Batch of 3 targets.
Target 1
Amino acid sequence: MLVTNFANVTYLTGFTGDDSFLLVTRDKDILLSDPRYTEQLEEECPGLELAIRNSGIKMGDFLGKVIRQAHVSRLAIEALSMTVSMWNFLETIVSRVELVPVEGLVEQLREIKDRDEINAIRDAIECAQRAFAVIRASLRNGRSENEIAHEIEHQIRWFGGSGCSFSPIVAIGPRAALPHAVPGEQQIGESDFLLIDWGARNRLYVSDLTRILVTGRISPKLERIYGVVSKAQEAAIELVRPGAMMHDVDAAARNVIAAAGYGKRFGHSLGHGIGLEIHEGPRLAQNEFRPLKAGMVVTIEPGIYLPGWGGVRIEDDLLVTRNGCEVLTTVPKELADCVID
Ligand code: ZN
Ligand code: ZN
């Protein structure tokens, strides 16, 4: 198998650079990389057989050579990351090797986290939560979404993270109606509440949370919408255990929101796996007919988005345990806890 997805290469070898592929054969693994990485490779994956491509040799030619030397007759190709041009090139340069497109082989392994991975995720959560506590305490009228987003990144690094796990979403008032709002110049004080969706990266693994913060008064509408989203999240969390079907967990939250009359205002799936990447398997979605398994770490993040008014999403990270689940994220989320005085 030729592993071309960089996150999969990292997962299988521990190597954190990019532009490198892993060839897995029956008797050995070979990491194809270039001289920029030789020293890093020795540090991160000592003992792994390397094939280093010198400048002046094209990646395609180099790949062809290594594949021919490995004497394989069939080669699995990661269809989700192989480019059309690389595929065409391989077909001509190793014409005697049968190329077999496959999907999700390594991704499936990545869905189940081992103890080290879970600990790394716990640390990424801790880091994100400490940063959030500082942000919360520093919110003042006049602070803009951009400033808050910048401060989140700063605090995450201050608390030992290697950065944000994705560009933080800081959305004040009506901007929160956009599930993936880009921070802008809106300021605290221009609306009664804001939504923050953020996470940290720590030792390669990530966290992902969303909270609402109330900087003005709790309007009856906010109270109602928040209550529905909160109930939807509880209903879903209640179901999370090994064997629970992913689409059923999604439906548990979706039904609560639909019953309240906001079914069309929850346009995304309920959650996703987190790990080396911020969005990875499994997907908790209406069309995902698979059971949850112990060791999966997923987000549960129902939301209601009302154009012109704003949106409410509550997002936590859960570990599927042998008997049920553990909610790993602990930032308080009763609406009264979200009020900043
Ligand atoms: Zn998120
Ligand atoms: Zn998420």
Target 2
Amino acid sequence: MSQQTKAVVEESPALPPAPAPARLTLDGKEHELPVIVGSEGEVGLDISQLRARSGAITFDPGYGNTGACESAITFIDGEAGILRYRGYPIEEIAGRAQFTEICYLLIYGHLPTAEELKDFENQLTRHTMIHEDMKKFFEGFPSSAHPMAMLSSMVVSLSTYYPKEGRDDDLDLNVIRLLAKGPTIAAASYKKNMGQPVVYPRNDLSYCSNFLHMMFSVPAEPYEVRPVLDRALNLLLILHADHEQNCSTSTVRMVGSSQANLFASISAGISALWGPLHGGANQAVIEMLGRIRDDHGDYKKYVDMAKDKGSGFKLMGFGHRVYKNFDPRAKILKATVDEVLAELGVSDPLLEIAKALEEVALHDEFFVSRKLYPNVDFYSGIIYRAMGIPTNMFTVLFALGRMPGWIAHWREMLHDPRNRINRPRQIYTGPPQRPFVPLAQR
Ligand code: SDX
């Protein structure tokens, strides 16, 4: 492992002084709760000693009000629609950086110099191939296997080839291996679905062009990557690169907190991302838009369904646990989608339906009162479609984008001296103690 890529993670800025503790009165007893304030002024009540001192725990299904950790990687202000990677606003990064630069920034804490980036990219290039025996794993999958199932399985299987971990060198090398082999595995999953032979990576292509080459080249005809496609994929991966303690990243931290290895932790994150309420939403958005198209384009009917609790229907790509304003990523994608489709010479009726849906929802009291805005998944699928990416690969592309964010959080957790195995509590609501009745007496 060359020394240049063992970048030192940048130290976090000093935090503002803590204000006076909060006071909680329970059963007539007063308890002090230390208050912690983040570098952007977020206030947290430290309840880490609450149970020991009061016997009580807090209760917060879905953790909407619970901070699991301190983190210096990504800042989101949901009310203001702000997203920053290591302090850099997403609007200033988008369209001006390579995805590999942002991988480096998120994982090592600072933007790489030209020298650091060159060395990092060389490392990635040298590790894009998977062990030849891993091709046999794909032979066992049915051709209809969902590529997210194959991605999750193959990523955890990387730990069978690289079992040694613990020394920092191995950890840093496994980070390179995972970032480099992710696109190779993802493209191979697509080839499995297509019944086509796996295409090997090339060392002369950029990270994004190499993935598109492995996706769309066939033995009889190498795929020529158009610059607009490389740029579009680069932007999409950057916009998905991290999003603080979302469901899949929290899963990676949860699994990693037991000291499970990097590959196993990231594989769990991939599985969590698959759900249609999370990363699977980009696939669900396109399926929803297709359903509306096939239903005479009657998008108002679906807006009304989304407002009817009993319908069980949600407007996919709308709403967010944190953003109660526009998702800044959705704003960037909406501004980009027309340009990409025009440059590709593609027109997509689903885009017109998406825009009409958005227009109606943004002026409808049901959505306005609940602060439901388009999120990152609302427009991303339209661009993936225009690039020729099949719908069932959309969440795989989300996973490739999120890989550096998952890795950065896993490393941050690993290097946090306060880190210990995550083990939430519960409020028991089951039956009180009762005597066991043997089968013969039941
Ligand atoms: C991602 O956390 C992250 O950072 C995630 C992510 C990332 O980068 O990692 O940003 C990526 O997962 C984006 C979200 C993709 N998911 C979808 O687009 C699926 C559709 N959205 C919803 O399922 C929902 O908005 C969630 C899951 C995104 C958020 O769920 P919450 O915070 O639990 O919201 P909620 O269910 O409490 O909603 C509040 C109200 C409810 O109505 P009431 O009970 O108040 O009457 O809004 C309603 C909900 O029923 N609502 C919707 C809706 N989303 C919320 N109603 C219709 N359509 C929707 N999409």
Target 3
Amino acid sequence: MLEVKKAAELLLDSTFAIAFTGAGISTASGIPDFRGPQGLWKRYSPELASIDYFRKDPKGFWEFYSFRMRSLFNAEPNRAHYALAELERMGVIKYVITQNIDGLHRKAGSMRVIELHGTMLESYCTSCFKRYDSREVLKMIDRGELPPRCSCGGIIRPDVVLFGEPVKDIEYALTIAQESDAVLVVGSSLTVYPANLVPQVVKQNGGKLIIVNLEETPMDDFADLVIRGKAEEIVPAILDAVKELVSNN
Ligand code: NAD
């Protein structure tokens, strides 16, 4: 595929390429995205994952959220996550900046990961800030402790950015984006602000913008390359094309 080879060339021509990923990279791992055809918000209201709802009804919040968490603990990275980790080991990609909270990039072996929306794998007490492995929290819920409480009595929450809360590490991510001369966007609708500033900043600074997504995104017109397809097929193909170009030089 010509486009895949072009993506590999753009990455190899850059000196500081980064990946920016969204929920679409994890759908092949069995985790539904939000806005795609099978999206979570087609079945549930986003209100359920908001800070207001957590404050108003922590029991109801955890009833919904523990269901999401359980599906994540059973999920494994797919070929797209592994391919990005290998591109990092090869020195082709310097950072993965993700909107995902599933922890699958780290599980696949990516080392430099910025999780703008936090991680579901960890939780913490809202009173004393003691940290918990979310697996422990799920066990509390299994024992009927709803909402789950810390030993100090405080209510525990997941370490994720809920609707109505500011994202984490955005300044850091934007600093990395300023340094970057190419961004490979994978599986993001690019509609969630301010995370979507990351690819915008790279492009505005003269860097290359490569988009791999099943559906159109609002940034397709600004992109240097758009590949319409499945992340789990396209990203490993880009990795293969990179390896081939490297071995031919
Ligand atoms: P999104 O749901 O808005 O968009 C996902 C995009 O991925 C869609 O445009 C869809 O067409 C595309 N897509 C779906 N499957 C794909 C595949 N196999 N290959 C390529 N593209 C595919 O997701 P977003 O842009 O990440 O923003 C939504 C928010 O959802 C983020 O804030 C994130 O925190 C949260 N979220 C995270 C997870 C997760 O951690 N895995 C899951 C759902 C939602």
